[in-house]
Specification:
alpha+beta, Beta Polymerase, domain 2, 5-stranded mixed beta sheet, two-stranded antiparallel ribbon, 7 helices
């Protein structure tokens, strides 16, 4: 007959509560950067071109210009060439990732912790992320390289992508880029009429 342990109710003194730590931000960012550095090693070893996009790329660009003002993010987004997807998946698997296609999204999850919320999400250059989007994901422009060699999409491409999707989070990222004086007149001039109008809308909402 199996012996059951004591039944513990929430709040029972025998349950050790999780403690709040002042290092929560550092722990989160350490895990995030471990993931992107591992991904870079995988893709670089296979000669696969990529660009980090999304909130992490915005965070790094803004933090370089205005330390402490970058907005944190939970996951990693990269732009890749769909033609290299098979090679990419095989290369990433050697570094602890697994390719998944879930709910229309292509992603690389950690083999040991396969959660979509912390996965590397992929979008494909020269394709629309959604059919209703006004513009495609920009092709590979000259990247901004971090000290570790990680390839970031340049600000001009990030601005186009954020204005194309244009959800609330994107608008906040655009405000961060603009407040850091990263959205230059040259970048604005390179926008389509639709995207330029959206940028004006973001600026007017300050």
């Amino acid at each position: 007959m199996a012996v059951r342990g004591p039944h513990l109710e929430p709040g029972d003194a025998r349950i050790k509560p999780r403690m709040i730590t002042a290092r929560a931000y550092d722990i989160h960012m350490d895990r995030l950067f471990e993931r992107i550095k591992r991904l870079h090693a995988a893709l670089d070893s296979a000669g696969i071109e990529y660009r980090v996009v999304g909130g992490l790329a915005v965070f790094l660009h803004v933090s370089m210009r205005r330390p402490g003002r970058g907005r944190t993010t939970e996951d990693v987004d990269i732009a890749v060439d769909r033609a290299q997807l098979g090679t990419l998946a095989a290369a990433a698997e050697k570094f602890g990732f697994r390719y998944r296609h879930v709910a229309g999204v292509d992603m690389l999850v950690d083999a040991e912790s396969p959660r979509a919320s912390t996965a590397v999400h992929m979008v494909f250059i020269n394709e629309k992320v959604r059919a209703e989007y006004a513009e495609v994901v920009p092709g590979f422009s000259a990247p901004t390289r971090t000290e570790e060699g990680i390839l970031l999409a340049p600000v001009a491409d990030l601005v186009k992508m954020k204005l194309t999707r244009f959800c609330m989070k994107d608008q906040l990222h655009l405000k961060d880029l603009d407040s850091a004086r990263l959205i230059t007149a040259e970048i604005e001039a390179g926008l389509s009429d639709v995207l330029r109008a959206r940028l004006a809308q973001v600026r007017a909402a300050r």
